[in-house]
Amino acid sequence: MPRRIIEDHQEDFFSGLENARKYAEEAEKSSKMRFRGFLKRLLESNVKGRYLEVGAGSGILATMIAENDRDLSITALDISSDMVSVAGEYIEKKGLQSQILPITGNIEDDEFIQFQDKFDFIYSTFSLHHWKNPKTVIRNLMHLLNDGGKVMIYDLKRVWWLYWIPIENGFFKSIRAAYQPDEIESILRETNVTQYKIETISPFFLQNITLWK
Asked: N or C: the chain end with fewer CB closer than 10 Å?
């Protein structure tokens, strides 16, 4: 299997309200297809209560989840203040301000984590391969999780038959930066997570990682 190539972080790509709004417009067009597999597994998990989305971006997925279950409350966390502003606009447009709270913060910041509440369900989609310190993130996610809760991390998987395609767009860069299941298991062992499931999803360049206490 080809080695992992860490992609450049995309803070500059998302900086500025106009860039964030353009990204949100494009993301909304593909949202049903992009999040279909994750939403299926979310429904199967049937976790109620307080949710935390890590890397919430423009708030599209949070609104899809909130619209499906009006009893949920979701904290939508993103590192980009511009994306959080756009998420706030989108959430208001959907009339979901009472369910979804967009906030700016860094899940890798231990000090930030100490001042956050606990959650029953924590999820993140297509962010794992961006994290600079995945072991720190995993530890922080488990710290924020209530007993009996679940963490679900949905991301790309590095596969050789896509890795070698000589295209430099965002998707193929992300494939090259994505983790293999054995690499994820190594991270989990080093963070003392013992209860987990790693599932490869058709068409085999997607994977879902579920952690629980």
From this structure: N
Would you place residue 1 in the very low, low, confident or very high pLDDT band (cuts 50, 70, 90)?
confident
CB contact set of 94 (below 8 Å; sequence gap of 6+): 63, 66, 67
Q: Are 55 and 125 in contact (CB under 8 A)?
A: yes
Give the E-state strand segments of the chain in sequence order.
Answer: 50-54, 73-78, 100-104, 119-125, 145-156, 196-201, 206-212
CA nearest 54: which of 104, 12, 114, 117? 104
Residue 94, CA distances (Å) to 87, 120, 154, 159 in order: 11, 24, 25, 37
Predicted confidence (pLDDT) per residue in 96-127, tens digit: 999 999 999 999 999 999 989 999 999 999 99
Order of strands across the sheet with 145-156? 100-104, 73-78, 50-54, 119-125, 145-156, 206-212, 196-201
Q: Is the dihedral of CA 202, 156, 20, 145 positive or negative?
A: positive
Tell me the C-alpha distance between 117 and 31, whole Å. 28
Q: Which domains does the chain have, with CATH numbers?
A: 11-212 (3.40.50.150)
